[in-house]
From TrEMBL:
Entry superkingdom: Bacteria
Entry EC no(s): 3.5.1.-
Gene name in the database record: fhcA
Species, as recorded: Methylobacterium dankookense
Entry protein name: Formyltransferase/hydrolase complex Fhc subunit A
Residue ranges occupied by any Amidohydrolase domain in the UniProt entry: 40-483
Amino acid sequence: MLIRIQGGRVVDPTANRDAVGDVWVEDGRIVPPSDRKPDQTLDATGCVVMAGGVEVHSHIAGGNVITSRLLLPELYVSEAAPEGHPFAHAGGAAGWIGATYARMGYTTAVEPAMPPVQALATQLELADIPLLDRGALTVMGNDDQLLQILRDGEGKAAVRDLVALNVATSRGLGVKCINAGGASAFKDGALRLSLDDEIPCYGLSTRKIMGALLDAVEEIRVPHPLHVHCNNLGLPGADDSFVATLDAAEGRRIHFAHAQFYAYGVVDPENPMTGGFRSAARRITDAVMANPNATLDIGQVVFGQTVTVSLDILRQFGGRKGAKPKKWVLNAGDAEGGGVVPFLYRPKGPVSSLQWAIGLEIMLLSGDPERTILTTDHPNGGPFTQYPRIIHLLMSKEERDREIAALPGVVTERSELAALEREYTLSEIAQLTRSGPAKLLGLTDRGHLRAGGRADIAVYRDDPDRTAMFTAAKYVLKDGDVIVRDGEVVTWRQGKSLSLTVESDKAMERRTETYLQDRYGQGLDSFAVPDAAFAAKGPVFEDVACRA
């Protein structure tokens, strides 16, 4: 079917395009303008046409997400899926996730924390999410087999082969490390860990573990850089950990997750843990802009009730006293562990308000929106449903000032936000939410509107109320099918699960089989993600090639 999206303002920064024109679609792909009569014409007059949104970091599946639903069922009441649609499952969460992202014009979403031992369950949950393509990042950095290999000094080849095997077995889209070595250190009594602190039992450091994973990701040629959750998240002085980690990358590609939670400078160096914190947004942004090997996503805080979910058990243990409501779950199991701690970001609270300001600061100070990706670290900084409001604040100095005026004075005293005049353009928003994330993940077929690209397209009414504009798209196309019309889902369809094509080493397979049998009494097959598990859904996975 030939479709013409006619008369909209087409915004595609990858093609330096920002002008009224048409976009043509055929057989799920964007095609050059045609002289043929279209089979369908979508009127985009008075609208903005962009590529479909791409989410790089949203906790939408996996053990911690399930635990959060059990701990806080009251937060998930609104996630009831539309009655009768074929993708509803217990609680309706998958249908709600897919539909809500789609209404906002998003067509791809990535779960950033998939432990290999939970890969099958996580991939099954992701496959339940309709409308979107989705993927997951394989977590390494605290697992015993990797730490043994490093402790024994086996060299880069063994680490590379183990990482490749874990990515292949879990069908990951990339690799993430979370406070590398922190879970093991916590189990031996540590409450804080820095880059060069020794991890008991292994005699390693975060620097050593992360460096080995950086090298492995490069050798395997994973498109997405190593996705790094640093030490000391959320603590005064976390900016030092961020900059030290960036320096430790030594020019290797690195992506920093939820950078807002590290942009906390010490107010009182004599009392770093009791003197509060100030914004270090400029320091973080300047450091990343000076290092073209680095990218970051924001982890923007928004006000209201949420729940924090993380495999960083060390930091979740530290944050349990701030739980609201007063209930929490920690799991100190094998490898990563994890924790679920509910949290309330209060607009009248000085800490919450300063966190809110810092995330916006980072984006407004960035000289390269394509390396500065919009996320809320859903649900840690707040729900992804707040993206339209965040976009509005970025595009309107007046709207920011209105909100700042209602917040505590710490926002102006300890951050630069009120003084920043910048207003994002639509092209910069497209970089922040489309082309940047797609490029970061190595998904060359999306994030743009050039001929040959996947026909994942969002059409928005050009409304000065940017919150309203980006909350409910006029049209959303997924692979050329209209799935949203006037902010409502009109076609329920299954997306694809994106996984990296990686070959595993047979010798490492045999070695890991023995290791798992000795440790768990189960082998590799028990942790694999076979096609047979998804047979009822038909073909689910789509391969993503490694870098050439």
